[in-house]
Write a structure and sequence with these properties.
Blueprint lengths: L8 H18 L1 H15 L6 H15 L2 H13 L4 H15 L1 H18 L1
Length: 117
């Protein structure tokens, strides 16, 4: 997939949701199991939902997935994460992943800006 730096992070978020829905129509039983697993993992526990989404941001930036970055930034912000917390998670990703992860922070910054509007 060729990525343009002017990509719409909201579109990445919406496309991720559409993809999950399409897979759910294809195999409802499998996707219901996946959804149940995701909801269980993301629920407040020893770690809050916000912290879990922030971890998701770091992993998304590390693996350079724009869809995942958009998804986790939006969900983290909905859970109360602020710009500084998100950027600190991106720095952790860069510490582990090096330059390619550092540059993938572009998508987290873009998502923060778009979801703050």
């Amino acid at each position: 997939m060729v990525i343009s730096l002017d990509d719409d992070m909201n579109e990445y978020f919406l496309t991720a949701g559409k993809t999950l829905k399409a897979l759910g129509q294809f195999n409802p039983k499998a996707m219901k199991g996946f959804q149940t697993f995701m909801e269980s993992v993301k629920a407040d526990g020893v770690l809050s939902k916000k912290i879990k989404e922030i971890i998701g941001i770091a992993i998304s930036v590390y693996i350079q997935c724009q869809f995942c970055t958009a998804w986790h930034v939006k969900r983290a912000m909905e859970a109360g994460a602020n710009r500084e917390e998100i950027l600190e998670a991106c720095q952790v990703a860069a510490m582990v992943g090096g330059g390619h992860s550092l540059m993938s922070t572009h998508y987290a910054l873009k998502a923060i800006d778009e979801f703050t509007k």
